[in-house]
Amino acid sequence: MTYCLSLLCREGIVFISDSRTNAGVDNITIQPKMRVYAEKGDRVVCLMTSGNLSVTQSVHALIEEDLQLGKAEPGHAHLLNQRTLFETARYVGTKIRAVDGMDRAALEAAGFPFNINVLVGGQIAGQKHEIHYVYPQGNTLQASVASPFLQIGEFKYGKPILDRGFTFDTPLRDAVTFGMLSMEATVKSNVSVGPPFDIFAYERDSLAIIYRSRAEEDDAYFHEIQTKWTNGVIKLVETMPHLHFPGVTGQPGDTPA
Questions:
Q1: What value does the CA radius of gyration of the chain take, rounded to a whole number of Å?
Q2: With 0-12 CB in 10 A as exposed, 13-18 as middle and 19+ as buried, what is 252?
Q3: Lower CB density within 10 Å: C or N end of the chain?
Q4: What is the DSSP string of 196-216?
Q5: Residue 200: φ, ψ to 5°
């Protein structure tokens, strides 16, 4: 399992992914799920993947192969010469379909699902910054001002905080915090998601990779937000109004033992 999220805000985009892969309790390994590509001054494209590791690696291999062919053949279609971010996401979808044609039958015959989901985001010069969700079938969904974040993998634990607090107008620096709290909530509740965490905060119109980091298991920042988040929730509960039980003047726990 994995958890990757992308947060679209007015000032840019935040991408965060974990690096844990799980093929059973005795087979947990580390595999980065984020890749960032850039042509400085022209475009930045970030890919994050979840699903069957062999499938995701095959898709990445086809993308890398096209990038190499594009150096020798200028007209060859590849990740970094699509006209728009939408077409870039659709290009990734064609690579998923190519792997589908090669491997789905054999995988399913052996009892393994053909499973891959991809988040594609970034910006091309002269265009707006965007994030897209590419499904296993190769079709896409785009985030919007009204629905400004996309998630793949084990997303249910990290979604509530985003639903409650994150918006398109959230400052980029705060979006990083929202994203890390969303990741922390997932790690707390699901052992199959874990560090290292890859973080990339893309500033709108920069067309460059500037704010990129990796948080290891012993990262001081991650431990600090874990502690503050836990303590903050406890303090918040203590300030909440108590439920009134009909016909009873006290509260649970008031009765002497």
A1: 21
A2: exposed
A3: C
A4: -EEEEEEETTT-S--EEEEE-
A5: -135, 115
Q: Report how far residue 241's alpha carbon sits from residue 237's, in angstroms, rounded to the nearest whole number.
A: 9
Record the tokens describing residue 196, joined without a space: 């290292």
Segment (H or E) for 124: strand 116-124
Measure Cα distances from 250 to 90, 93, 214, 238, 256 in Å: 61, 60, 50, 16, 11
User: What would the two tokens of residue 169 be?
Assistant: 């107008």
Q: Read off the pLDDT of residues 104-131 as tens digits, 9 standing for 90 and up.
A: 999 999 998 999 999 999 999 999 999 9
Share of the chain above pLDDT 90, in %: 83
| Peptide bond connecting 196 to the previous residue in cis, omega within 30 degrees of 0 | yes
How far is residue 124's CA from residue 26's CA, in Å, rounded to a whole number? Answer: 43
Between 172-189 and 220-239, two packed helices, what is the crossing angle to 10 degrees?
Answer: 80
